[in-house]
Structures are given as structure tokens and as C-alpha cells.
Design goal:
about 230 residues, 6 helices, elongated
């Protein structure tokens, strides 16, 4: 029995998708380059006279240089906090960061806390996404599987599996904690065996796709009206 439990909760390690990683990086660099060129060209687009352009440029470009300097300083700082590996095992979830530190949210440290006056494990809205929220030794914390804190050094292709395993660990090792049933719906998880509920998943995807198509259609009509 103990061996079956150990096998079921053997360490699940994050797996990189290098294709998506480099695709995301290339598109990110291209977008930043386009934005950078647009910022540089803005005075020339707005100013019709050379003297006005020179006067604006004297004030504008030093400010742009300072903001770029602050931006790259921030990127360098935040990169040290990037997660390079996530491990979910029979103890909890462990985040290994680029600077060598390890953050953990362990099952043994979770405590009862009435989210929504009823459940101990709930959801927290953040940047139009939902984060798992737990009470870790008296502190309300978000269990980050979305890279909201500082992001990841690469695209992780099994994030959903890691999240499912962590929830399964809470249900197994901490049956005293009450999990909000809405979590299973939001993350498309079957609460019986903690596999992916494909019906719920594709229903959510179709809803999102429908909204995106509607937004694109309305945007296209608005642009067409403006052009004509």
C-alpha cells in the first residue's frame, strides 16, 4: 500500500518545450523591436518642422534612454527570480529559481482558512487568471503555476499536470482541508481521479474562441467603418 502511494506521488518534474520557448522568445524580441522603433520614430511622425523636431528630441530621447535603462535593469533583476524547475512530490510543490533559491508550499504546512467562508483551498483572480490560494502557516499565499511571479526560463508544457498533481496531493495528504469544487471546473480536472476533464476543457476553449471571434469581428467592422 505504501509503495503504491509512493509510486503515485513520485516526483513530477516540469518539462520544457524548446520549440514553444524559442518561438515565444523570437516573437517577444520582434514585438519589443517594433515598439522600440515606433518610440524612436514618434517625434518624427508628430513633428512637421525641423526646429520643432530638434527641440522635442532634446527632451524626448534622454527620457526614452532613461526609461530603457530602467527597463533593462528591471529585466535583469526579475530574471534572477525566474523559475527554472518545478517539482511536485509527496511533500508539496518546490520552485527552483534561477538565483539558486527554492520556494516551497508543503502539504504539512497548510492550515484551515475559510476562503469564501466555506473552503480552505480556493481561487484568487490575478491578471484575468485564477491562482490556487491556500493558507501556508498563517499566511494566505498563491500557488503559482502560471508564472505570475517572475515567469519561467523556458515554456513548461506540463503545467496542467503539475497543478493536478498538487491538488491531488492536497486531497490525499490533507483530507481535513476543504477544496472549493469550482477549482475542478476552472482547471478542467476530474475530481475522482484528477485527470484532465476533456469535455470541460473543450467547452471552455470553445467559449473563449467564440468570444475572440466576436471581438475580432467587431474590431474588423470598426476598422472598416473608419477606413471608409
Amino acid at each position: 500500500m505504501q509503495e503504491d502511494i509512493m509510486k503515485e506521488f513520485s516526483p513530477l518534474i516540469s518539462k520544457p518545450s524548446w520549440f514553444m520557448t524559442w518561438l515565444t522568445r523570437i516573437f517577444g524580441v520582434l514585438i519589443l523591436l517594433i515598439v522600440f522603433l515606433a518610440i524612436l520614430a514618434l517625434p518624427a511622425i508628430l513633428c512637421n518642422q525641423v526646429m520643432v523636431l530638434v527641440a522635442v528630441g532634446i527632451l524626448y530621447y534622454p527620457v526614452v534612454a532613461f526609461l530603457l535603462y530602467r527597463f533593462f535593469r528591471y529585466q535583469k533583476k526579475i530574471r534572477k527570480r525566474e523559475v527554472k524547475k518545478i517539482v511536485v512530490d509527496d511533500k508539496g510543490v518546490h520552485y527552483e529559481r534561477f538565483d539558486g533559491s527554492v520556494d516551497e508550499v508543503l502539504y504539512a504546512n497548510l492550515e484551515k482558512y475559510c476562503f469564501s467562508d466555506e473552503y480552505d483551498v480556493g481561487l484568487s483572480p490575478r491578471n484575468k487568471q485564477y491562482m490556487l490560494q491556500v493558507n501556508d502557516r498563517g499566511y494566505v499565499v498563491d500557488v503559482d503555476f502560471e508564472g505570475m511571479d517572475a515567469g519561467y526560463t523556458y515554456y513548461i508544457k506540463n503545467l496542467k499536470a503539475l497543478r493536478r498533481r498538487y491538488l491531488q496531493g492536497i486531497a490525499h495528504f490533507r483530507p481535513d482541508l476543504r477544496i472549493n469544487p469550482w477549482i475542478y471546473s476552472v482547471y478542467s480536472i476530474n475530481p475522482v481521479d484528477f485527470t484532465c476533464d476533456r469535455k470541460e476543457y473543450w467547452t471552455s476553449m470553445l467559449k473563449v474562441g467564440g468570444v475572440l471571434m466576436l471581438v475580432c469581428l467587431v474590431s474588423g467592422l470598426v476598422l472598416y467603418k473608419l477606413a471608409t
